[in-house]
Fold each of these.
Amino acid sequence: METAHGGIETPAFMPVGTQASVKAVSPEELEEIGAEIILANTYHLYLRPGHSLIRRLGGLHRFMHWSRPILTDSGGFQVYSLARLRTVSSDGVVFQSHIDGSRHFLGPEKAMEIQQALGSDIMMAFDECVPFPAAYDDVLDAVKRTTLWAERCAGCKEEGSGALFGIVQGGMFPDLRALSARELVALDFDGYALGGLSVGEDAATRLAVIQATRPFLPEDKPVYLMGVGTPADLVEAVCLGVDMFDCVMPTRNARNGTLFTSTGRVTIKNARYTDDDRPLDPNCGCYTCRHYSRAYLRHLFMARELLAYRLNTIHNLAYYIDLMRAVREALRTEQMALFRETFHQSQGINQKKEDT
Amino acid sequence: METAHGGIETPAFMPVGTQASVKAVSPEELEEIGAEIILANTYHLYLRPGHSLIRRLGGLHRFMHWSRPILTDSGGFQVYSLARLRTVSSDGVVFQSHIDGSRHFLGPEKAMEIQQALGSDIMMAFDECVPFPAAYDDVLDAVKRTTLWAERCAGCKEEGSGALFGIVQGGMFPDLRALSARELVALDFDGYALGGLSVGEDAATRLAVIQATRPFLPEDKPVYLMGVGTPADLVEAVCLGVDMFDCVMPTRNARNGTLFTSTGRVTIKNARYTDDDRPLDPNCGCYTCRHYSRAYLRHLFMARELLAYRLNTIHNLAYYIDLMRAVREALRTEQMALFRETFHQSQGINQKKEDT
């Protein structure tokens, strides 16, 4: 995939930079890890510091000192999951800020205004998320509205702005997912996202939704699974034809001391690591694994040192980015089935150790 | 000054790495800033993760991935300021940990055991701090005990271990400071620290104590003022013949959003910086000032992003380290009086702006 700020190899994982910062790491660290694109949140940046401010200061890339591509979400999911007192109409959503309770409005035109002000490389059309579980008719209404809003978003895309993706909704109903996909494809977007997932459904349901939707999306356009998931979720979704991912899991888990390794998860506060002089993951070449022992990482975490959050985040993001690199290699050499099998076998090893 | 881990140019400022980490920054960032030596806390590392663990893992330098010199304090000040239920005897101090209330003992032999286990380049003899204000006789007792303990510390210094400094006590009484200095100098330490300051006294009292003590310390040995202070305090103390400093002020203030610049302090949350596209300090070449605007630093701080603490800390430490570099240059060229005058004039500029 090509953007004004450089290319992206797919399948790709996008670290989440909610508030114009990927929590605990610097842009240079993201580059060293190999991140080719990050995600920023339209809802959060609209509320604080404001998209007009960021535009005045030269756009989001310059503001946050990141020169590679940025994907912005639509704000739809955050309005649904964070904001209070939502009122949805055909124009958009009136809501209260989760920060100070102030009243705001987001709709298709506003979401595009914000994303274009930020200077996004890949924008998302404004969508309506529904709760899980939801009644069929409510989901159908949301699908219809999402299509109308997507068309209005396409209509206010300015010359020279970034790519625009439509977001497929439809809850857990395969036929509504197919309907949403068909309606959006008819509008010919630059790519398609699967939204409204990671809202409480189990992994099997999620995979079934992906499987039911993917055939209705074009083979030659990128497909982006929003907000998912564990390393295993990503491997499975790639096998179903997904090209792009974002998730707070590697960064949030890092700050909670749960670390992803080639042999499964490590809970770094576990007493077994007190004396452990080995790198966190001997198969990882990240800054954290090159220079620090498990014993030191445990000490930093127990002592609540700020460096703990950084070192853990660097490793977890490197794990996700490296996983995607290995997946691309497996796809290139047509070894994806073997890769998938080996990957799943490796993942339980550490849990068994920690449980003993 | 030379140590087993390299040389230190004086006057020097030492960033504080209390728990085997200078809060919010990496060793590489400290090197880029130009820090030639850091301080680590004997009391904290003894309690968590324990000096025996650090020795087993190859010493503090390897544990925390820092290859330049490390100075360790004696633990005396922390036992006095942090620990609970202290009982002081001629052997040392029984106290309760501020972390979990567990009972511990620190005395001259123990403090040396810990510092040598850590692999410290510059160790401090175990001392007794007194409250401020304190009665003359109590301070005299503490001075006498500090001398006896210093002698015992010198007695258990192992072959090949780091330098050992004696700590001058004596409260705010010039004659007791002189007594303490004379007694320690008779024991011929590698350097001398001024302890028991920054305990609530005003700057004038502190400067008077330094002025009263310095003549009793040798010209050819380093003098280290412990736990002091503001940039102006450092400039004044250098003029009185002090060579080394440590203080949590640059790092702690950074995390509170108070930033030191060439024109005085900046309170970064101030609304005046919302739209301010300029670097924090146009006269600073640190990573933060090279790549980020005041507007972005304010945004990160308001949004409580972890990157805020790092960027602010990098700048404040760079400010202190650069100030010492400028002071060394002024001393070399015999322009210290002029430097001091210019420095004090520059410091108020920003307050006047922020107050308007």
Amino acid sequence: MNQVQAFNDYREKMNERILDGDNKVIKRIFNLDTNAFTDGAINPKNKELIGLACSMVLRCDDCIRYHLGKCHELGVSKDEVFEVFGIANLIGGTIVIPHLRRAVEYWDELGS
Amino acid sequence: MNQVQAFNDYREKMNERILDGDNKVIKRIFNLDTNAFTDGAINPKNKELIGLACSMVLRCDDCIRYHLGKCHELGVSKDEVFEVFGIANLIGGTIVIPHLRRAVEYWDELGS
Amino acid sequence: MNQVQAFNDYREKMNERILDGDNKVIKRIFNLDTNAFTDGAINPKNKELIGLACSMVLRCDDCIRYHLGKCHELGVSKDEVFEVFGIANLIGGTIVIPHLRRAVEYWDELGS
Amino acid sequence: MNQVQAFNDYREKMNERILDGDNKVIKRIFNLDTNAFTDGAINPKNKELIGLACSMVLRCDDCIRYHLGKCHELGVSKDEVFEVFGIANLIGGTIVIPHLRRAVEYWDELGS
Amino acid sequence: MNQVQAFNDYREKMNERILDGDNKVIKRIFNLDTNAFTDGAINPKNKELIGLACSMVLRCDDCIRYHLGKCHELGVSKDEVFEVFGIANLIGGTIVIPHLRRAVEYWDELGS
Amino acid sequence: MNQVQAFNDYREKMNERILDGDNKVIKRIFNLDTNAFTDGAINPKNKELIGLACSMVLRCDDCIRYHLGKCHELGVSKDEVFEVFGIANLIGGTIVIPHLRRAVEYWDELGS
């Protein structure tokens, strides 16, 4: 679980440093991020699948890692994750494949 | 329903012209597109929500229109669509807002 | 002033329709957008130059139009606008040029 | 040839307006653009195929139109153009398809 | 040849893990990727130059590495590679330069 | 100052290797880059804030590092830097946050 721990530690440490900056716009964006993924007309699990897919087509490794972690917590299955990967790689193209490699490696480390 | 009809007509007409080009790679990509959104570990409705969100963060008006049409067919509610819009505008940023305007206009025309 | 009026009218009309959707995340993003460009450590004029440059490298015509309108209101000079254009086209590459054409047309219509 | 003429006329008119702005950075970028596609280790035709592919994965309709026009002038065949389309849609993903539709329409109008 | 070996090993290992996921859409995308770059109206070498340019404007280091490796295998000269770099940095802008640095480093390691 | 030194050293070393390639287009782009940020209608400090914001919405860590270094040299304050971060994260969305983390870490290392 080395890569997962490293990601979470760095994320937590730097989020603190960011919030130390005391910038109102940034702090509100951080709050919104929590709000957007809570239960609503769409449930948290499906929202995480959406967040994962968006992160993948936008090709952000850390965002993919974050949403994979959340998916894992919420009991998303490997088949569901791979269907999101399939859609994201189709919509986003083969330019997404290097991110897919790192995503699968991270999912493996999450112990799914 | 003017905008919806215009989009569907142009899409159908040009897809035919594209397939007339008889390029194997392109034809297979078109086939895959149909395959990726069929029922599987994730159901078609949730796949369309994913497709809609990806289209929005990647800022493609026509892709948004296509997935809004599919969402409408599958009975997705206005609140669900707006939650996808919310997530996509948060992840993708305010640069997405002009596409949100056109998406809401199209959703209105779909008669939701 | 035809193009300017058309942009502002559509923008206003659809922003209302968006807010009618009553989605908390979207409403907060709209509020934040107003907040981020108010006076602070950086003054409103320089924030608009930043907003204009970001809109251009991200290649969003409507965002460019919006920030050009704000720049015009705040008395930004043509030379300043063109220096932003120069930086944005250098950073973003020649793929930005079609947006530069439409930006210059809009700036002309603003009556600078 | 309506669409082709309209594109060329607008492009020419606005390029003049841009150069009127007399911004050194922009003028040099315009010069470089001419230089980059002249004969060298790679011939002009293959450079245009590269320019076309880049325009397509970056999803810029006007850039695609410009390079399609150049390809047409240089005698690029329909099969070559479609192979570029295939590669660009595979690398860039299905998000490119709406641009492919408009590209095929423009290519048809060029009279290939 | 350290960096080249590391890239190829990781790529091979993770491609296997991806295909283990047994997702039909992903497997077909992988197949298509092989197909798109075979001989056709455009020869494999020119297709690789196109793939390299697309990878660079889309700013994907691993995709650049992959196509540089293929270019090297196919006997593409340093001058040809640099002309692709020039076009990609002009179209994609100076935001591409950090990827250009890593590309030149990788090309050096390939022993060209 | 470890991360700062490493970035500057690698940047300098590879820029030399790039210029060794003796490609006219690339050399001119490098020259233009210096020109675009010199004093003009907009002063160098505000141009660096623009360059920083563009780098952030385009999500290029090395470009962010480069402009943070320049901002630091020109005496930009932490509050100004954070206002740029706020605008960039709002326009570019939460997909920018991982780059914000690395940017704050780099800014800390610059000794602000």
